[in-house]
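Hey team,

Filing this mostly as a record. A colleague (T.K.) asked me to run one chain through the structure pipeline before their review meeting, and I want the input and output archived in the tracker in case anyone asks later how it was produced. No errors, nothing strange. Just documentation.

Input sequence:
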Amino acid sequence: MTGTPQDPGAAGDGLAARSSLPEVVAADGLPARVRIHEVGPRDGLQNEQTVVPVEVKAEFVRRLAAAGLTTVEATSFVHPRWVPQLADAAELYPRLTADPELRGVDLPVLVPNDRGLDRALELGARHVAVFASATESFARANLNRTVAESLAMFEPVASRATAAGARVRGYVSMCFGDPWEGAVPVAQVARVCRALRDMGCAEISLGDTIGVATPGQVERLLTALGAAGITPDHLAVHFHDTYGQALSNTLTALRHGVTTVDASAGGLGGCPYARSATGNLATEDLLWMLRGLGIETGVDLDRLAATSGWMATRLGRPSPSRTVRALSVPSHKEP
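Output structure:
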């Protein structure tokens, strides 16, 4: 290891021995490679109460890319009143696209409507995402619309984005449980996923927004989506770790053929419209598991942990990622 999470350039005290960990033990029925869709700069930071300077956000994206992440969700073109933390999208995004160190890095952005899409396309965005809900309660809380109304709003957005040559991703929130409605019927989730697919979304991310899913639920939903013609190669999973189930749920999805996993560096994140939503699956915790299973990602775990430690210092609190915390503690050899 070349440094600690607090200082990527400093020499670690006894940390180098951990570079060979975890021991690699492959398992049957898993993909050889997983693509990580890093959401830290957008979903990770959007719920922070203290505004993060645009220079820090840009440096965060640069460090994530330097660690080997090739898809880094950069920001959201929503109205500043909705998400004040991301009000600087029009200033941040051009900085990123002009940065030679980010050449070749996919920088998706979230767009809520036609106006958001206009702003994103004007700045050269070539990968956009829309965000739907599987439940009426959350659609009202998040979008002030019914599920049907929100899908109707997204249809022209997806159509225009595709016509402009942009790739479209569809997020579906509350796929496993809703704080107002409780358990979410599988058929309800499938209906929203089909609508997003039919309007041109190349990828659909299944969100466990409040982190209540268990592996059995994940298996049941993926099986139902397969029966509806939505195959794992068009799906991603997005788990929150409220009850410590994010990794087990991810492993279940991988066994089902999903090869794209959303994660947030350092475990940052939450949802401003669902108070019970805690942090996202930490990218470092995901990497530790994948590395132990012999699954390739192209991401340098030590460098990523250093980046998350750097960001945690700027946010003024420790990283919630267990792996970041473990790698930041010096290990001492017995005399």
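Quick notes for T.K.: The radius of gyration is 19 Å. The first strand starts at residue 35 and ends at 38.
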